TrEMBL record:
It is found in: Secreted, Cell wall. It catalyses: Eliminative cleavage of (1->4)-alpha-D-galacturonan to give oligosaccharides with 4-deoxy-alpha-D-galact-4-enuronosyl groups at their non-reducing ends. Its EC number is 4.2.2.2. This is Pectate lyase. The keyword Repeat does not apply. It is an enzyme of class 4 (lyase).
Length: 440
C-alpha cells in the first residue's frame, strides 16, 4: 500500500507547477492555499487495494415497483417533482441516518455523521456554532453585510449555516466558501438562482445540503472577499452551479439543480474525497464533469461517489463524464438522456452498481456509455464495470477492462442494492420539504 501511495504522490507533486502556473496573478495567500490543498489531496486519497469479486445483490423479484413493460410510471410522474404527501420515508442508508425524526431541527448536526462513499469523512461545520442567514441580498462582495450568506461563508471558523426563512439569493459574484462549513437549507425553501454559483476552491470539509440551484450565470469577476482577512482579484466565473476546485472532503446532498450556464457540478484540479448524493438533476446539457483536462494527471487521485441521485427530464450528457480517477456510480435512477449517460476519457475507472437506466426511444441512443478520444484498442483496457444494474427500453452498458480490478477499501464503497431498487432509493431525491416541528 505504501508503494502505491508513493507513486501517486510523486505523480501529483509533478503536476503542481502546472496547477500553480494557472494562478500566476494570484497573491501569496492563494498560492499557500494551493499548497495546502495539494497536501490534503494526498492525505485523503485512498489506494486501491481490495478485489471485490462476485458482489451479491438482494433478489428484486418480489418488487412491485416495475410494471410488466419494464417502465416505471415514475418516469412520467416524477419530473414535475410533485410534493410527496405521505408519511416520512427514509429509503436509503444516508437518509435513514437522520430523517424521519420529529426533532431533526434541534439535532441538525446529526447530518454530519451520515455521509457515505468517498466523502464519508466530511463533517462540515459540526464543530462550529449555528449561523443564521437573515438577509438574501448580495450587494457588497468586498465587505459583505452580516446576516448574508456571503458574510457567513467567508468566516475562518467552522460554521453550520442555516436560513431564517425561505428566500431567493441572487449572487452578484461567485460565492467563495471557506473550509469547515455546512450550508443547510432544511426548514426553508432556499434558491440560489439567476446569478453566480458556488465555488469551493482549495478548501476542505464542506457540506452543501437542501438547496435549489438553478439559472446560474457567469459573473464578471473583480475584487471579491474570500476570507475575513483577505480579498483579491477574481477573473470571470464560468457559470457552474457548484465548482469544486482542488478541494477535499466535499459532500453535496439533497440539492435540486438545473439550467446552469456551464456545468451543474464540476470537480477538477486534484479534487477528491467527494460524495454527490440524493440529488435531482434536470434540464441541462453538461450535468457533472469530474476532471476537466486530459493533460492534468493529478486527477488520477480523484475519487468520487455518485449515489442515490435521480437524473431526470431534459438532461443531455455527463451523468457523470470522468477523467483519470476512480468513480463509484451506485443506485442512481437514470430516466432521461439525449446523448449518453456515463462517459469519460484518459482511462478512468468507473464502477456502475445497482443503477436503473431507461434508454430514450431513439434506436441510436440506447448506449449508456461513451468513451472519448480513444480507439477501442485503447479503451478496452479501461475498467468500466456494470454490476447489478437494471436496463430498460433497450439500454445497454459497454463494459471493458479487468472485472477483478482493485478497488478502495470497502468502507468507501457503498454497498449496492440491485438496480430495480433504484426507483425506491431515489424517491426523495432533491431538496426536501422539511418543516420545523415535523418529520423531514
Amino acid at each position: 500500500m505504501e508503494k502505491v501511495t508513493l507513486v501517486f504522490v510523486l505523480c501529483f507533486a509533478a503536476m503542481v507547477p502546472s496547477l500553480v502556473a494557472d494562478f500566476a496573478v494570484y497573491d501569496t495567500v492563494w498560492k499557500q492555499r494551493a499548497e495546502e490543498a495539494r497536501n490534503m489531496t494526498m492525505e485523503y486519497y485512498v489506494p486501491n487495494t481490495d478485489i471485490i469479486a462476485n458482489e451479491t445483490f438482494d433478489d428484486p423479484s418480489a418488487l412491485d415497483l416495475i410494471d410488466a413493460s419494464g417502465n416505471s410510471t415514475r418516469r412520467n410522474l416524477r419530473q414535475g417533482k410533485r410534493r410527496y404527501r405521505g408519511p416520512c420515508e427514509a429509503t436509503n442508508p444516508i437518509d435513514r441516518c437522520w430523517r424521519c425524526r420529529p426533532d431533526w431541527e434541534a439535532n441538525r448536526k446529526q447530518l454530519a455523521k451520515c455521509a457515505l462513499g468517498f466523502g464519508r469523512r466530511t463533517t462540515g461545520g459540526l464543530d462550529g456554532e449555528i449561523y443564521v442567514v437573515t438577509d438574501p441580498s448580495d450587494c457588497d462582495v468586498r465587505e459583505p453585510k452580516p446576516g448574508t450568506i456571503r458574510h457567513a461563508v467567508i468566516q475562518k471558523r467552522p460554521l453550520w449555516i442555516i436560513f431564517a426563512r425561505s428566500m431567493n439569493i441572487k449572487l452578484s459574484q461567485e460565492l467563495i466558501v471557506t473550509s469547515h462549513k455546512t450550508i443547510d437549507g432544511r426548514g426553508a425553501n432556499v434558491h440560489i438562482s439567476y446569478g453566480a454559483g458556488i465555488t469551493l476552491q482549495f478548501v476542505t470539509n464542506v457540506i452543501i445540503h437542501g438547496l435549489h440551484i438553478h439559472h446560474i450565470t457567469p459573473a464578471n469577476g473583480g475584487m471579491i472577499r474570500d476570507a475575513e482577512d483577505h480579498f483579491g482579484l477574481r477573473t470571470r466565473s464560468d457559470g457552474d452551479g457548484i465548482s469544486i476546485f482542488g478541494s477535499t472532503n466535499i459532500w453535496v446532498d439533497h440539492v435540486s439543480m438545473s439550467q446552469c450556464h456551464d456545468g451543474l457540478i464540476d470537480a477538477v484540479q486534484g479534487a477528491t474525497a467527494i460524495t454527490i448524493s440524493n440529488s435531482h438533476f434536470t434540464h441541462h446539457n453538461d450535468a457533472i464533469l469530474l476532471g476537466a483536462s486530459d493533460s492534468f494527471a493529478g486527477d488520477q487521485m480523484m475519487q468520487v461517489t455518485i449515489a442515490y441521485n435521480h437524473f431526470g427530464q431534459g438532461l443531455v450528457q455527463r451523468m457523470p463524464r470522468c477523467r483519470w480517477g476512480f468513480f463509484h456510480v451506485v443506485n442512481n435512477d437514470y430516466t432521461h438522456w439525449l446523448l449518453y449517460a456515463i462517459g469519460g476519457s484518459k482511462h478512468p475507472t468507473i464502477i456502475s452498481q445497482g443503477n436503473r437506466f431507461i434508454a430514450p426511444d431513439a434506436f441510436h441512443l440506447k448506449q449508456i456509455t461513451k468513451r472519448d478520444y480513444a480507439a477501442e484498442s485503447e479503451w478496452k483496457t479501461w475498467s468500466w464495470r456494470s454490476e447489478g444494474d437494471a436496463f430498460m427500453n433497450g439500454a445497454y452498458f459497454v463494459q471493458s477492462g479487468d472485472p477483478n480490478v482493485k478497488r478502495p477499501h470497502r468502507k468507501y464503497m457503498i454497498k449496492p442494492k440491485h438496480g430495480l431498487y433504484a426507483t425506491r432509493m431515489t424517491r426523495h431525491a432533491g431538496a426536501l420539504d422539511c418543516r420545523r416541528g415535523r418529520k423531514c
